[in-house]
Amino acid sequence: ISDTAAALAAVNAAALANATTVLATGTTNAADAAALYAVDHAATFTTISDTALALLTTTPVNATALGHATTLTVTGTTTAAQATTLYGDNNAVTFTEISGTAAALAAVNATALAHATTVLATGTTNAADAAALYAVDTAATFTEISDTAAALAAVNAAALAHATTVLATGTTNAADAAALYAVDAAATFTEISDTAAALAAVNAAALAN
């Protein structure tokens, strides 16, 4: 028996139980998927698509139902914890965006992160957490990476380039400023301090930042 989830949910449960296959075609939202699963636990779905909040909380869909979807698409913004749960339910799940702290994101399965169009580390990320997340997902983006210049210079240049803001905190000497500027020309500094001779050797753009 094959139709939309809403149409199938209106069919007598005994009739559905007598079918070898019950397939909800098209795109099914969380509410309709939950309703059909309540009538027939063996129902399968072409696509279930909704926000993580809807799928897990507002109109929670049973994990078995999510696993019965050929395609599971999570729209909107998904937290690291929600992404982990949904990936456990269906490891083919895809996400519009997974967003959280870098530390939280680094704990998410690398395949789940790879299934997201956007992975965004929010808030302020230190150098170690940025490096850890980049090791898991080289496409991850960051709101801000902030640490000492020496620590930041050790982070992969591509990771720094994926940050809206890179800020070297504390007091940075000329050598560390030059090293960080070589990795990320857009990096900003709280303070660069050294002898005049040492500072004169630093790129003028780095000093201006």
Q: What this model shows, in words?
A:
- The protein is α/β, with parallel strands linked by helices and 209 residues long.
- The protein contains 14 helices and nine strands.
- The chain has a nine-stranded parallel sheet.
- β2 (23-28), α3 and β3 (44-51) form a beta-alpha-beta unit.
In short:
The protein has 209 residues and is α/β, with parallel strands linked by helices. It has helices spanning 5-9, 13-17, 30-39, 52-58, 63-67, 80-89, 102-106, 110-114, 127-136, 149-153, 157-161, 174-183, 196-200, 204-208, and strands at 2-3, 23-28, 44-51, 69-78, 94-100, 116-125, 141-147, 163-172, 188-192.
Mean pLDDT: 95
From the N-terminal CA to the C-terminal CA, the straight-line distance is 65 Å
Count of helix runs: 14
The helix/strand order is EHHEHEHHEHEHHEHEHHEHEHH
Overall 3D geometry? Answer: rod-shaped
- Secondary structure tally: strands: 9
- Widest sheet: strand ordering: 1-2-3-4-5-6-7-8-9
The radius of gyration over CA amounts to: 24 Å
Helical content class: 40-55%
Layout: helices, strands, pairs:
Elements: E1 2-3, H1 5-9, H2 13-17, E2 23-28, H3 30-39, E3 44-51, H4 52-58, H5 63-67, E4 69-78, H6 80-89, E5 94-100, H7 102-106, H8 110-114, E6 116-125, H9 127-136, E7 141-147, H10 149-153, H11 157-161, E8 163-172, H12 174-183, E9 188-192, H13 196-200, H14 204-208
Parallel strand pairs: 1-2, 2-3, 3-4, 4-5, 5-6, 6-7, 7-8, 8-9
List keywords for this structure.
209 residues, alpha/beta, nine-stranded parallel beta sheet, 14 helices, 9 strands, rod-shaped
